[in-house]
Amino acid sequence: MSDTRPRRATIKASLVALTAGAIIAGVATMLNQATTERRGLEVPTVEGYNAANNQARQAGSGTATADATALSGAGGASSSTSATSSSSASSSSSASSTPASTSSQTSEQPAPPPPPPPPPATTPQAPPSSPNAGEAAKVVQLVNQERQDAGCDALKVDSRLTNAAQAHSTDMAQRNYFDHTTPEGVTFDQRIRAAGYQQPAAENIAKGQRSADAVMNSWMNSSGHRRNILNCAYSTIGVGLDTNGWLWTQDFGF
């Protein structure tokens, strides 16, 4: 009996030590797994956030990409042309002669000086053309080439559409917006009618292209713009350009 008790105590102590060791080892394993999982979650989140920031900065710091937008609308009421009548007033000069009184004694008087020569006639100077008129005319030429290939009649340049288009390009450049509708809510057809053209049809605008060839390439590769350019129902066109931002406007009419 005396030998059995110490032996049981030794076995019990060994079991307690083994159990404690297993518990400690299990806790250490759980801590290592938790640390590994936490690192695995944190690293991709941080890298993904930085990558998104880099992408946003690159997109914002690059050169401005060419953009374009098209809009078409139904034609308005029949056009009303207001005839401008100019009246010229002519002044008639009447010469009155006073009979000279004769007397028995006549005295010689000096002859009057000759009248001054008339000023030389001046040739009226033509108003200076828009500095961008050449590029605008090139756009019209390219438009009519595309229409000829599609079997449509050539568009005729209308000064009222040209004025409306140029005014819109300049307005977008000066007030830094890019839209068919002004910040006050004036639509493209309202702008065209305000310029005196009563049958607006459609409008194309573009931004960033630095030549007529470049902007036409952008428009012809966009279905909406191409549809406006090749619409055989349209008969007139006006093109405007402001090189402060390279803002283009095409206005079409019936």
From TrEMBL:
Q: Which domain of life is it from?
A: Bacteria
Q: Is the keyword Kinase assigned to this protein?
A: no
Q: Where is this region: Disordered?
A: 56-136
Transmembrane regions: 12-31
Q: Which InterPro entries has this protein been placed in?
A: CAP_dom (IPR014044), CAP_sf (IPR035940)
Q: Where is the composition biased (Low complexity)?
A: 58-109
* Composition bias, Pro residues: 110-130
Ranges for the SCP domain?
Answer: 141-251
Pfam families attached to this UniProt entry: CAP
UniProt entry tagged with the keyword Signal? no
Keywords from the UniProt entry:
Membrane, Transmembrane, Transmembrane helix
Which PANTHER family is this protein grouped with?
SCP DOMAIN-CONTAINING PROTEIN
Q: What is this protein called?
A: Uncharacterized protein YkwD
Organism, scientific name: Actinocrispum wychmicini
